[in-house]
Amino acid sequence: MNMLEINGLNVWFGTARDRVDAVKGATFDVAKGQSFGLVGESGSGKSTILRAITGLAPTWSGSIKVAGETVEHKRHKSFFKTVQMVFQDPYASLHPRHSVDQVLGETLHLHGFKDIDNRVVKLLDDVGLGQKFRFRYPHQLSGGQRQRVAIARALAPEPTLLLLDEPTSALDVSVQAEILNLLADLRAEHGLTYLMVSHDLSVVGHMCDRLAVMKDGEIVEIMDVAALQGMQAKHPYSRQLLEASV
Amino acid sequence: MEKLLDVENLWVKFPSRQGVFDAVRGVSFSLGRERLGIVGESGSGKSMTGRAILRLIRSPGIVEADHIKLDGVNLLAKTEKEMRAVRGQRISMVMQDPKFSLNPVTTIGDQIIEAYRLHNKASKADAYAKSIEMLEAVSIRDPERVMRAYPHEMSGGMGQRIMIAMMLIPNPEILIADEPTSALDVSVQRQVLDIMDKLVKERGMGLIFISHDLNLVADFCDRVLIMYAGRIVEVCEADKLHEAKHPYTRGLLNSLPRLDAPRDRLEVLQRDPAWSTAPSVSGQI
C-alpha cells in the first residue's frame, strides 16, 4: 500500500507578473514503511513539496493522497496525527522561551492526549535524551539535542508519515551520524514512512530506499538507491549532481 | 616555502562568570602560498583562529600570541589604525553567512564599489567597470542587474559569490575563508571553489580555508590542520587525510555516510577526554 501518492502537484507563489512556479507537475509515490528522498539544489522546489503536503504552502493544485485519503486544502485534524514534519534548523524551530516539557506537553495537549506526563517521559526516552533534559530551555541544549527535541515533538501525535526537511544540514558530521542513526532506529521501531529532503546525496543514499532528483521545480528522475550507489543515473543533471558529490 | 603568515602560540580567551574560557589554546602554524585547510566541529575554535589573525575579536575577548607575523611584521604590535590598512588590503576574510555580512540597505553595486575605492584610487566609472568584471569572475549572470539589487533579493549562493568578489577586489595576499560554501549547494559549491582556486593560483595568494567538511577540505586544500577543543590535534597533507592517524580525525571520517560504501549504521564518535588536554601539534612549515 502506498502511504503517500502525489500526482501532478503544482505549487506556485505570487500572482500574475510575480508568479513563481516552484513545483511543476511532480508525481511520485512512497510505499508504507519506505524512505523516500528528494534531492536537488536550493530553489529546486524540494522543500516546497513538503510544505504543500503539510499545508504550509496553500497555493497548490493536483492531488495529494495520504494513506489512500485525498488531502483537501482545508485539512482535517486527523491529518496532523498522521503527518508530521521535522524542520531544517533546530535553532529556529523551537520556541526560545518554552522548556522541552512545555514544547512536548503542548503538542500532546493539542492532539488530545490525556496521559501527557507519561508520554513526555517516553518521547524523551525514544529520542535518547532522557529525563534530565525535560525542564531545559533550547539555549541550554546543543544543536543535536535540539534536533532530537524537534524529532520528539514530531513523534508526539504518533504519526505514520514523517516529513524530514534537511534534518541534519545544520549539524556537525559527528552529530549528523547520531541523528541519522536515531532516525533509522525510529523508523524500524515505529514502522514510520519517511519523506526526506536533502541536498547531500550521500545522506540520502544512506537513509533512503528510493529518491527523486529535482531541478527547477520538476522531477527529472526517480531511481533506486542501488542505482545511485552504482552511479547509474540516467538523466544528465542527476549524473552531474552525483559526480559533484563523490 | 616562503612564509606569508606565521602564527606562534595563539590563545583566544573569553573571561566569563565561570572563569576564563579558552576558545583557542596555544595554536601555532604558518601559511605559504598554498591552500591551508582548518577543519573541526563547531566550537573547536577554527573560526576564532581566523578572526584572531585579523584581530577581529572584540573585547572582552583576549587574543594572546608570541607573534602573528605577516611578511615578518608582527600584527599584534600594530595600532588599530595600522590594522585597518591590513584588513581587506592585505588579508581579507569571507565570512560564513552572506546574510549577515552584506549591508541590507545598500545596493550590492555600491558596496563593491566602496570596497574597491577604499583601497584604490579610481574613478566611479572605473570602479563600476571593475566591479562588473569581478562579478563576472565569480560567474554571476546578469551582473548589471545584480549591481542594482539589494542583498535580500539575492539567493545564498549569489550572496556568497558577491562576498568573494568584494573580498578579492583589493587583491589581498591572504584570503581567510570561513565556511564560505557551507550555505551553498554542491553544484554551486564546486563553482565557488573553482573560482577561489583559480584566483589563489593566478595571484599567488595564500588561502586559509576554514570548514567542517572533511571531504571538501581533502579535495580542495594542500595541507590540513585538524582542530579539537581549541588545539590542533593533527596536521597532514590533504591528499593523505584519509590515512589520518588521530582517533578524532578517524572518528570524523568514519561518521560520514558514503555512497560507495553503504552501511546499516553510522559510526558515532567516541570522545576521549585526553584529546583536549594533549599538547597542540605545530602546523608550521
Automatic annotation (TrEMBL), chain A:
PANTHER family found in the cross-reference section: GLUTATHIONE IMPORT ATP-BINDING PROTEIN GSIA (PTHR43776:SF15), TRANSPORT ATP-BINDING PROTEIN (PTHR43776)
Pfam families: ABC_tran
Organism for this UniProt entry: Pelagimonas varians
The keyword Cell membrane is assigned to this record: yes
InterPro entries (alphabetical): AAA+_ATPase (IPR003593), ABC_transp_ATP-bind (IPR050319), ABC_transporter-like_ATP-bd (IPR003439), ABC_transporter-like_CS (IPR017871), P-loop_NTPase (IPR027417)
Purpose of the protein: Part of the ABC transporter complex GsiABCD involved in glutathione import. Responsible for energy coupling to the transport system.
Lineage: Bacteria, Pseudomonadati, Pseudomonadota, Alphaproteobacteria, Rhodobacterales
Any one annotated GO CC term: plasma membrane
Protein name per Swiss-Prot or TrEMBL: Glutathione import ATP-binding protein GsiA
GO biological process, one term: transmembrane transport
EC number, as in UniProt: 7.4.2.10
Topology term for the membrane: Peripheral membrane protein
Family of the protein in this entry: Belongs to the ABC transporter superfamily. Glutathione importer (TC 3.A.1.5.11) family.
SMART domains per record: AAA
Reactions the enzyme catalyzes: glutathione(out) + ATP + H2O = glutathione(in) + ADP + phosphate + H(+)
Enzyme class: translocase
Subunit and partners: The complex is composed of two ATP-binding proteins (GsiA), two transmembrane proteins (GsiC and GsiD) and a solute-binding protein (GsiB).
Domain ABC transporter as annotated: residue spans: 6-241
Name of the encoding gene: oppF_2
UniProtKB/TrEMBL annotation, chain B:
Membrane topology: Peripheral membrane protein
Pfam families: ABC_tran, oligo_HPY
Ranges in a coiled coil: none
Compartment(s) where it occurs, according to its Swiss-Prot or TrEMBL record: Cell inner membrane
GO process terms (BP): peptide transport; transmembrane transport
Keywords for this protein: ATP-binding, Cell membrane, Membrane, Nucleotide-binding, Transport
InterPro entries per record: AAA+_ATPase, ABC_Ni/Peptide_Import, ABC_transporter-like_ATP-bd, Oligopep_ABC_C, P-loop_NTPase
Ranges of residues in domain ABC transporter: 5-254
SMART domains documented for this protein: AAA
UniProt GO cellular component terms: plasma membrane
MF (Gene Ontology): ATP binding; ATP hydrolysis activity
Transmembrane annotation, as ranges: none
Keyword presence, Transport: yes
Similarity remark: Belongs to the ABC transporter superfamily.
Protein name from the UniProt record: Oligopeptide transport ATP-binding protein OppD
